[in-house]
């Protein structure tokens, strides 16, 4: 019998924000190879190790192929058993509607994890269910990640998705804070091959300045690196703004006629001199003034901050100050500076701009953003009695037990729920509590268009790819699950479901109506993208202001009242300089939050879940490399192996994000062998960015001492 032919498929890797183009070769139902696509106009052949792991994800024996329900055994323990789709969907609908009818719609909560934005069906069709469950208790990974970015974009530019993107290929000066794109492949910045981009910047005579408590992989490429005391980035950024005003270097350039509030900003930053900031941050005053001058003088300059500055107590203040620096130096909306994208399916035109503080969480009064509450409030909303107490939870593509503050308290809260349903392909540390798990098809079994990350891309491109494999008989795509479950909920509520077109039809409509659509010379449509499977190049980013602004008056008002007030909070804050070790996170190129640890290609090599500590601190504590240490915060403690390195500053300790796979009842066999510990068993739901409610995962005070006896699971 003759062998089947080898078939070549074009695909965008969906595993991180870089969305690199890949070529996947298959024979029958087997993957032969995965390589970078040299014709992809965005990634140009670049891939990282995660792309090759697409094969492992598809073939993972732990991935659910059929729905499961949770049952109690004769021994009194719980296990999940396979059921047919009709039974699973009926159980899910019955459970959700039962809670709504007994306790009200706000007794149902929803949580969407980070992978939801990597799969466009989850974005386009979740409303097929939630138009019937109009709960105020909605949560997502946004509030442990990027909420400050969205909020500042809404206030300054009028839309939650108007992110200024570093135009790195044309820049001469790059000031980077709390970001490690060499490991993360960019974040709120889709930039495949970023390592080479940064090297090119320095090679052409530009300057890369990295601010981080840890000498990261990105810092190793820097022209200058400055370690900063965790949580003090707002002091540094406001001091830079102070220096710009003090040295009369404020010049918004072509935006001058659009910018309001400069006088109020000057007044607010007056107390934040570089000399005062040096004492708080550990960065010399003359270095701070040099940063200000270099930004003002650069022929294309960028100030950019990411997770490290967002997930701290002044995350929103930091992101506001970053944009103030870009604006007052004339580097916003300028080639080589920061520019707005113009994606083929324009989410800025199609999506709601967002809103803030229109309602608040029941227990603590935390503000909503874009109809979502901060996830730090979820556990208390489940455990605190009263009207609208959360009794049921729907999760999709998320694992908040490992990814949100005080995860160990959240997992205890989940056991108090009356009902839980998860749309997820794995039984993980969160979904193990679900009464019903509804698994979607494998990513390679459905088509793909990246709705989210073209919004953040360093170049305007578009690509659509069909499935690599046919879906198995009876399997459902995530959007079909939403439609089927939504129809059942509607029937039980006595209302009619609203029909919707499939995701690819929505994309076709968006492409045709978008800025490169059928009314333009590009004439983009789904059929044109299908004819060019490596994607279409729509050109470099271009200045777009004032036309791209979505503020009510078409202007940029820097004097956001609540932000200026937050400057006063920062001035009065003594906790930032309180003694003790400060915990920060870290990332690795083979990791992506909690869901990349069940694939052999990604977990091979030396253990990555260690506590990094400076040699002097280790000596002071009488500790040696490899010792098991206990790390304790106000809310919890973990035992972990010690890694001694000069890569972290004195007084700083670092744990990676996404580990802690030692919980029982999961079905992640390889991850269990590399369990590690969860840094979010140490983070604190009370430790927040007060302004936004975003979790402050960095800068948590901890104690470190020799562990009495590490648990077997952690060994």
Q: What would you say the CATH architecture of the largest domain is?
A: 3-Layer(aba) Sandwich
Main-sheet strand order equals 5-4-19-18-17-6-7
Low-confidence stretches: 711-715
Strand content: 15-25%
Could you report the average pLDDT, rounded to the nearest whole number? 95
What is the count of distinct domains? 4
Number of helices: 25
Helix content: 25-40%
CATH topology name of the largest domain, in short, is Rossmann fold
How much is the radius of gyration in Å?
25 Å
Structural class: alpha/beta
Number of strands: 30
How would a textbook summarize the main sheet? 7 strands, mixed
What does this structure look like?
By secondary structure, the chain is an alpha/beta fold. It has four domains: 6-59, Phosphorylase Kinase, domain 1; 68-144 and 347-537, Rossmann fold (3-Layer(aba) Sandwich), CATH 3.40.50; 166-336 and 546-566, 3-Layer(aba) Sandwich (Dimethylsulfoxide Reductase, domain 2), CATH 3.40.228; 574-706, Barwin-like endoglucanases. Helices cover 29% and strands 18% of the residues. The strands form nine sheets. A seven-stranded mixed sheet has the order 5-4-19-18-17-6-7, with helices on one face. Strand 27 (628-632) and strand 28 form a beta hairpin. Helix 9 (233-246) crosses helix 12 (285-297) and helix 11 crosses helix 12 (285-297). The chain starts with 5 loop residues before the first strand and ends in a 9-residue tail after the last strand. The model is unreliable at 711-715 (pLDDT under 50).
